[in-house]
Amino acid sequence: MALHSLLHAFLKSIALSIIIGALLVYFLMNTVFAQGIVSEENKWNVRNSEVLYNIISTEKWHISGDSIYNGHECKKIWYYLWQKDLPYTFSGLLREDSNIVYYIPPGDQEGILYNFNLLPGDTCQIINWCASEFSIIVTGMDTIETFYGIQRKRWFLNNSPYNYWIEGIGSNNGPLHTNMESQCSDWFDWSLLCFYHSDSLLYKWSETGDCTATSVNIDKCDHAENIKIYPIPVQDKFEVRSAEFEVECVEIYNVGGQKIFAKEYPGSTNIEIDACNFNSGMYVCRIMFSNRTVIRKLIKY
Q1: Which class does domain 223-300 fall in?
Q2: Above 70 in pLDDT, residue 154?
Q3: What is the dihedral of CA 16, 22, 28, 31, to 10 degrees?
Q4: Is the pLDDT of residue 18 over 80?
């Protein structure tokens, strides 16, 4: 009789554990999907590879703060480079409605960032971090299993197995990064390393063992912490500021690798550059000093 009671209690505890586990998974699934992408509980770590100079860094993205755009309530999205002692950079506004995420770049017009209502064969005009509207086509759909056994829908774009959206997470290149390579720059490559909700890891890229990535001794090699560009993103003009070194020359290249600006600045530590004639988009800025070179990205709105 005692053995029967013990067995009954044991089976009861197992059943209770299964029920609690199932409820936990259900709660996580519904909490994450109910929040959507535009939530202050969401964070993204993105690997940024500068292919030309073999420099790897980690962008950290989060959503914080409210704003209004054309009568709509929006959230502010920010990023910073994990390796650098720099403040977060405001990168625009987001809002979400009926499974569509809208993005408003700083000083620009609203566009669609994600449309999770699309089906295979559908096309859509979207925008990303550096480009105005461009066309994408959904070439396939399946599901992907993330943490806790949660199944999420996945949309493949433009016949590429390396370019897709994940339900509740965004692009596999980063939150604002759909088609960044083809639309913005061949010199950079972006990959979403990890996604967090309420500080819980819910997605990790299968090809990484860590949620941060960096080149070896990147800070010591290029003294990047001593060279700053302000403001980012760039509008009419920007400054190159050096806390320690005298800048000798500044060169700026467009995404096609063409040099569009070059000027020498002997003995200068604070330089102002007129960007009024630059087209909107991404640029590479080479700052030379003391036989060294620092590479900086510029985004012009």
Answers
A1: mainly beta
A2: yes
A3: -90
A4: no
